[in-house]
Amino acid sequence: MRNIDEKTITQAVLGAMAQCPDPRLLEIMGSLVRHLHNFAREVRLTEPEWEAGIRFLTDTGHITDERRQEFILLSDVLGLSMLVTAQNNARPAGCTEATVFGPFFVEGAPRVENGADIANGAKGTPCYVSGQVRGIGGEPVAGASIDVWQSDEQGLYDVQQPDAAGGHTHRARAQLRSDDQGRFHFRSILAHCYPIPHDGPVGRLLAALGRHPWRPAHLHFMIAAPGYERLITHVFRAGDAYLDSDAVFGVRQSLVADWQRHEPDAQHPGEGGYYTLAYDFVLNPVGGAA
Ligand code: BEZ
Ligand code: FE
What we know:
With about 290 residues, the protein is an alpha/beta fold. It is built from six helices and twelve strands.
């Protein structure tokens, strides 16, 4: 392996890993090397540009810690997260579609009964959410575990508002179970649109590309029940200004729903009144069609 040049380098790298004992790793790394090399050839990558790329990835690593995952954010804004979600969650028509998971899920959210107020002090206009979990055959799915999490009126998740000790109080997130009829309901607050974290390298990249960092208002749901494929999805708010320019490309028309506004009343005297959202989820049985 000497005198390797621009034309022979790709084959040399592929040859160097040909003895890899793991066929899937070989397939993935082989394809990655081919695409990376062809990318560098296609754009005639210069040395300063290669250095800028390395600096960008280094900065992305430096800002990543237990709380902040800038590499996932990078994957999100490049559409890779949604591509991987879409190609691994194809389901029959009629099933609720999946979308990106996002970085704000927290294990161990409070378990609450149906009807509970999950806001727990999060600020916003009251919002009552209800729905039913069904299988594709129309059967109610009783006892489904339903995780829900969302932003507040400032567009912030609880984990973005750490307390003095660096922890956070669970707000506007909870875990509940569907009842015998597959139904669930809870009180929360109206979710707002928000910018994804954009004070780091990914934010600088978006600005350089002339892109904004906003996501349309949504509720996150993760629904799991024995015998059914786990569903990770959002419900988006109809009318949001960012539905057609989501920074992470996660919007599916079937996931857009109307939040009904109601005038203030004795129980909801705030000038914003209150909102209701009704949305049903349809799960695919394990081993069902894709
Ligand atoms: C979210 O919806 O929580 C989210 C998704 C991708 C990047 C940032 C936030
Ligand atoms: Fe979100």
